[in-house]
Q: What sequence folds into this?
């Protein structure tokens, strides 16, 4: 049976209206509700289902972030994950933490924990990078199955249905592998109160990127972050003739 490592990220809750900082260096996060990245919830659910089907013997969740990121790990543990690993990154180092750093961290932990499979969300809803799964597979030289909407295990292999621009693509990958979860892979469960209480007793190991030999020096500099331009109000025209006149004038409709 496989051992599964699941990546989870603490992000600003999807229902919160994002506000850009006055100095345009990022978004306001202080005093703002955070939760687990929705695509990572799907990844956790899939890993837990694998364990319930006896396809996985252990599920380990890992998160990179400040002390508050432990709340995200506890949510994963309450959903059925066995144990957690908190890679402590805070302050300016966390502000410039990029997918390449997270990928190296996941790759190192995969080797240390001797896992056969890594499952992450296809992207995080804060930076929308969609890079971590692909780069992790490259660092490990493992097979990869991104944008997975269905996963079936047969004869030591995985048959994965992927969501692509033209529809659906079905591929077969050998273990070990890296999978990124798409929206339609499953419907994540709610953590019940008894499981939330049990999660408080499950172990969480703390490490730092330095402990794992990962250099988190930023490779990218954010020059400026700005709100998208406000759309101008539309206008109702009486007929096509008025539309033609407006278009000739170069006006906005």
A:
């Amino acid at each position: 049976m496989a051992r599964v490592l699941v990546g989870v990220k603490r992000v600003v809750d999807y229902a919160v209206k994002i506000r850009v900082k006055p100095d345009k260096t990022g978004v306001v996060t202080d005093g703002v509700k955070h939760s687990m990245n929705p695509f990572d919830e799907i990844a956790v659910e899939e890993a837990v289902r694998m364990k319930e089907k006896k396809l996985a013997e252990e599920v380990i969740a890992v998160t990179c972030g400040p002390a508050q990121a432990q709340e995200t790990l506890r949510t994963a543990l309450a959903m059925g994950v066995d144990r957690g690993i908190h890679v402590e990154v805070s302050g300016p180092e966390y502000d410039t933490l990029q997918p390449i750093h997270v990928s190296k961290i996941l790759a190192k932990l995969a080797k240390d924990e001797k896992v056969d499979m890594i499952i992450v969300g296809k992207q995080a809803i804060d930076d929308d990078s969609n890079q971590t799964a692909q780069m992790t597979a490259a660092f490990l030289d493992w097979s990869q199955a991104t944008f997975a909407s269905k996963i079936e295990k047969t004869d030591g292999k995985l048959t994965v249905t992927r969501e692509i621009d033209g529809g659906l693509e079905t591929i077969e990958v050998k273990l070990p592998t890296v999978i990124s979860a798409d929206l339609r892979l499953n419907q994540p469960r709610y953590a019940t109160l008894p499981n939330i209480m049990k999660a408080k007793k499950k172990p969480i190991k703390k490490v730092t990127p330095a402990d794992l030999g990962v250099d988190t020096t930023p490779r990218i500099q954010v020059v400026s972050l700005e709100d998208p331009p406000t759309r101008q109000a539309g206008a109702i025209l009486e007929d096509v003739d008025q539309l033609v006149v407006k278009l000739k004038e170069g006006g906005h409709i």
